[in-house]
Design a protein that fits this description.
Layout: H1 2-6, E1 11-12, H2 18-23, H3 35-38, H4 40-53, E2 57-59, H5 67-71, H6 79-93, E3 99-104, H7 119-135, E4 140-146, H8 149-161, E5 165-170, E6 173-175, E7 178-180, H9 187-194, E8 201-209, H10 210-223, E9 228-233, E10 238-240, E11 243-245, H11 250-262, E12 265-268, H12 276-294
Parallel strand pairs: 1-12, 2-3, 3-4, 4-5, 5-8, 8-9, 9-12
Antiparallel strand pairs: 6-7, 10-11
Helix pairs in contact: 4-6, 4-12, 7-8, 9-10, 10-11, 11-12
């Protein structure tokens, strides 16, 4: 199991998919998941760039692959085809030791009473996705960018029903003096909810850059022993002459990575705005940190 593996090793996750595909021509507003069917070579190119840069774990291009999000684009009936294609493409990029995780994001609808989505309907939508992945042999799931603890636990329930293993990752935003999810849940509250689930890897991704995300893991570590998963953005995006720009560099990731490792982050990669350079920097930071840990001097050059 990945939890057991992370007790012994630090693994490098992959980087962004959506922002990378946009650079390759994905039109604004077009679902990246559809490119598993129409532009598989571009998706494969992104996967391979991460594996070649040092990723130990990559994830499928399926963040919005559910009936609700795809239904907005008339693609709900092609859900199974899209998910299966995503797995086939990702497997092509994997080396013999590369792990593959299925990416599952929020459904894009608010649960009652904040919206119209009933819990039983949400659970069934997650089951629909998870069963497709499980049916073609995927056992590891990255439930990512969740801003509702209730919704994340429903997705986790679907994964547990098929005997899968999950990384459950939340996104937080600055509010007042702290960081909270969209639903107002603090990192401490989230960590407490997963303290009795030692088989689940708790994570944080997206939302903010690596400096802000570090604060989340400082809060996690006070409430939960880990191991944790981190996939920060390459900074907070800004628009420069009509182009979305992320300002955190691979060197920023290299410099700050050891602070994550000391907080028991054992799976680290990048989210929006990151590219293969960020992943190579994290791989270099990981290798140097491990070398220092095993050195009698422990000095970082």
């Amino acid at each position: 199991m990945l939890c057991d593996l992370l007790k012994e090793r630090v693994l490098v996750f992959d980087g962004a998919m959506g922002t990378r595909l946009q650079q390759l021509g994905l039109p604004p507003g077009h679902p990246p998941e559809e490119w598993n069917l129409s532009h598989p070579e571009e998706v494969l190119l992104v996967h391979r760039s991460y594996v070649d840069s040092g990723s130990d774990v990559i994830q499928t291009n399926t963040f919005g692959g559910n009936r609700f999000r795809l239904g907005r684009h008339g693609l709900a009936e092609r859900l199974g085809e899209i998910l299966e294609s995503a797995v086939a493409i990702a497997w092509q990029a994997c080396h013999s030791g590369t792990l593959l995780a299925a990416s599952i994001g929020p459904l894009g609808e608010f649960l009652e009473p904040f919206g119209d989505l009933k819990e039983e309907d949400a659970l069934e939508a997650f089951r629909e996705v998870v069963r497709v992945f499980a049916g073609i042999g995927v056992r590891l799931f990255h439930l990512e960018t969740f801003s509702s603890l209730r919704e994340a636990l429903l997705a986790l329930e679907a994964v547990e029903e098929v005997g899968g293993e999950a990384i459950v990752s939340f996104t937080f935003e600055p509010r007042g003096e702290g960081m909270v999810t969209l639903m107002g849940e603090t990192p401490a509250r989230v960590a407490q909810a997963f303290r009795e689930k030692p088989h689940v890897i708790l994570g944080a991704n997206c939302g903010t850059g690596i400096r802000e995300v570090l604060r989340i893991f400082e809060a996690y570590a006070r409430e939960h022993p880990g191991p944790f998963s981190a996939k920060p953005n390459a900074g907070v995006p800004r628009v420069d002459q009509g182009t979305v720009v992320y300002n955190e560099t691979p060197e920023d990731f290299f410099t700050l990575a050891p602070r994550f490792f000391e907080l028991n982050v054992r799976l680290i990669g990048g989210c929006c705005g990151t590219h293969e350079g960020h992943i190579a920097a994290l791989r270099r930071a990981r290798d140097l940190w491990l070398a220092e840990k095993s050195s009698p001097h422990g000095k970082r050059e």
